[in-house]
Amino acid sequence: THGRLDSIFYVQQGVFEMQWGESLENKAVVNAGDFVAIPANTKHREKNMGDVEVVFIVARSGGKDFTVLC
Q1: Tens digit of each residue's pLDDT (9 = 90 or more) over 13-63
Q2: How far is 32 from 28, CA to CA, in rounded Å?
Q3: Max Cα separation, the chain?
Q4: Checking DSSP bridges between strand 44-48 and strand 35-38, what pairing results, if any?
Q5: Is 62 helix (H, G, I), strand (E, B) or coil?
Q6: Three-state SS for 53?
Q7: Residue 4 region, left (φ>0) first, then alpha (ψ -120 to 50), else beta?
Q8: What is the DSSP letter of 70?
Q9: For 9, what's the count of Cα atoms within 13 Å in the CB-facing half-sphere?
Q10: Which of 70, 69, 67 is nearest to 5 (CA)?
Q11: SS3 per residue for 7-68
Q12: Prediction pTM value
């Protein structure tokens, strides 16, 4: 989790499985061009499902904090 920060992913390249939830019980396949929104305080994990490197941009925000990771 990233505490009180919401996380929004934009996938530029590749395909991965996003897992989320208390026991990572929820799963979705995410492809290039997709967005994924993970609410604050949500446990999550990414797993590469393809043969190419996954490239994504993550923006995190909550309250006065805002972070962009490329």
Answers
A1: 999 999 999 999 999 999 999 999 998 889 999 999 989 999 999 888 876
A2: 13
A3: 38
A4: unpaired
A5: strand
A6: coil
A7: alpha
A8: -
A9: 23
A10: 67
A11: EEEEEEECEEEEEECCCCCEEEEEECCCEEEECCCCCEEEEECCCCCCEEEEEEEECCEEEE
A12: 0.77
